[in-house]
Amino acid sequence: MKLTIKDIAKLANVSPGTVSKVINQTGNISQQTIEKVNEIIEQTGYQPTFSARSLATKKSNLIGLIYAGNINAEMNHPFFNDVVNSFKNAVGNLGYDILVFSNNKFSRDKQDYLARCNHYQLNGCLIIAGDRIEEATLELDKSHIPCVGIDIALSGPNSSYVTTDNNKVSEQVVTHLYLNAIKDVAFIGGPEYSVVSNIRKESFIRQMNLFGMNTKDEWIQYGDYFEESGYQAMNRILAGSSVPQAVFAVSDMMALGVLRALKEKGVRVPVDIKVIGCDDIEACRYSDPTLATVKQDKDKMGKLAAYMLHDLINEDAEPNSVQVDPELVIRDSCLMDNHA
């Protein structure tokens, strides 16, 4: 029969809480009691359970993972999936497990994240950016629970966030095209209400204006970050009165849709139109042509989020924000004439 912490407490004639404090080496326990409990543990071969270890410390060593927003990123999005995998590995090495929150039923029932964090005694939460952020996420951000956001600007008393420098994303694309005599550029963004996409769009327009480059209203299109929406957006651009020399899509998935639309119409990439995406997902290396992109350092973002959350949990750092520099990666879809 497997022994429980209550069995050890009964044999030692102490409370379960005292046994837990001995196991966790916390609290003011007499040396005599410590020796007595440890002797019984040794004699019985008792192995403390996870709940026994956490009883005295009030720490579950559990991190909540929340895909925020009424329209959220979904677990199958390659960019966020890579960031979460990096985060998972880093927090695992720090001694934490992850509890993934589903927000479907909870949204209908009007329950909140904060109540569930308290119920599971979570040490902290990683919040993945979504769109149309629900009130429950904002309430959690304002609470005592340590939180770190990915691509969401948290501002609570115990919250930090990590994001790519989204202004630099568009600046690097436009500057590269300008330096290679490309003047006519289309832009395919995420949803019109997407915070990250709008930062990239505003930076794109600002940089285009700075260099006197050309874009048109019909060349500014929107999708949902996935391939089919990029395909549809590119077809709308091709149906217009004129076509650009280059297309910048704010996600690689949409850029892959752009390549598909151009291929179907017999438009040569990069000879007729050049294409650049954003994220540097694995598929970029295997598309035809291989996809130029703005690399977001997904591994670094995940690790930063893990260590920043760990520091917040242990009160080793003040809340802060970190912007990670992007890197333009030129592949076949944006080769210039002198390289083609």
TrEMBL record:
Cross-referenced SMART domains: HTH_LACI (SM00354)
GO molecular function: DNA-binding transcription factor activity; transcription cis-regulatory region binding
PROSITE patterns: HTH_CROC1, HTH_LACI_1, HTH_LACI_2
Positions of the HTH cro/C1-type domain: 2-37
Transmembrane feature ranges: none
Stretches assigned to the HTH lacI-type domain: 3-57
Alphabetized UniProt keyword annotations: DNA-binding, Transcription, Transcription regulation
Source organism: Virgibacillus oceani
Protein name: LacI family transcriptional regulator
